[in-house]
Amino acid sequence: MSSHPDFTIHNLPYGVFSKKGEKPRVGVAIGEHILDLHGAAELGFFPEIENASSVFGSRYLNDFMALGRPVWRQVRRRITELLTSDETLRPVANQVLVKQSDTAMLMPVRVGNYTDFYSSLEHATNVGKLFRPDNPLMPNWKHLPVAYHGRASSIVVSGTDFHRPKGQRKAPDADLPTFGPSQRMDFELEVAFVIVQRLVGA
User: Fold this and answer.
1) What is the bridge-based pairing of β-strands 103-106 and 114-117?
2) Alpha-carbon distance 117 to 146, whole Å?
3) Cα(59)–Cα(109) distance, rounded to whole angstroms?
4) Digit-coded pLDDT (tens) for 40-96
5) Structure confidence by residue, pLDDT tens digits, 131-156
6) Closest CA to 41 of 6, 7, 67
7) DSSP character for 90?
8) What is the spatial order of strands in the sheet that 25-30 belongs to?
9) Lower Cβ count inside 10 Å, N or C end of the chain?
10) Domains in the chain, ordered, with CATH?
11) Rounded distance, CA 31 to CA 158, Å?
């Protein structure tokens, strides 16, 4: 495998990918390749997971995440063992390693809901200036989480085309508002956390 500075043995991110004409499946990035976990499960590399082939052959990571931390650790150890043992990997490399350039990356999780928090002082201040130039940051901001509910359908994988939003706007010299596409675009860096809920009992 050729090296890639972002995906070394110390950074093995999970994702969901597909090759043309094939069903989506779970994989792990390594170098410029993807370790096909569904393919590895089919070869018996995850005996500790019941229905491993189904879990890693899923369209989303939700089934795997629902198994919990002890299973995640077992799988991580098995992945590391596989990728660091040339004797184990070499005979099956053509079956479990896929070039990233030959795949399409898909939405990795099925998002049921999300809440967006104002976690940056600068961001909260800049937004506040739009509505309250003289008092942009409300006094409660530093004492309780300030958040708003977002639409899960707005979360898409990188590279997805989207329509420019349309809405109502009013020019300073106009008597009435008009409806049309937005005239400004805002780019932000977002950090997301996936929370896995496990319901116990009825």
Assistant:
1) unpaired
2) 6
3) 8
4) 999 999 998 889 999 999 999 999 999 988 999 999 999 999 999 988 888 999 999
5) 899 999 888 888 887 888 888 888 88
6) 67
7) G
8) 97-99, 33-36, 25-30, 14-19, 103-106
9) C
10) 14-106 (2.30.30.230), 114-181 (no CATH)
11) 19
Q: Are 55 and 14 in contact (CB under 8 A)?
A: no
82 CB neighbour count, 10 Å cutoff: 20
**Environment class of 72 (CB within 10 Å of its CB; exposed 0-12, middle 13-18, buried 19+):** middle
Token reading at 113:
């809901």
Position 25, amino acid:
R
Coil/strand/helix, residue 25: strand
In the structure encoding, which two tokens stand for residue 184, read together? 């400004």
From the list 10, 33, 38, 123, the catalytic residue is: 123
4 classed as catalytic: no
Question: What tokens appear for 179 in the block?
Answer: 């409806």
- Positive or negative CA dihedral for 169, 170, 171, 176? positive
Q: Work out the number of other CB atoms within 10 angstroms of the CB of residue 161.
A: 5
CB 28 within 8 A of CB 11: no
Whether the CB-CB separation of 154 and 116 falls below 8 Å is answered with: no
Contact between 94 and 35 (Cβ < 8 Å) = no
pLDDT tens per residue, range 182-198: 888 777 778 888 777 66
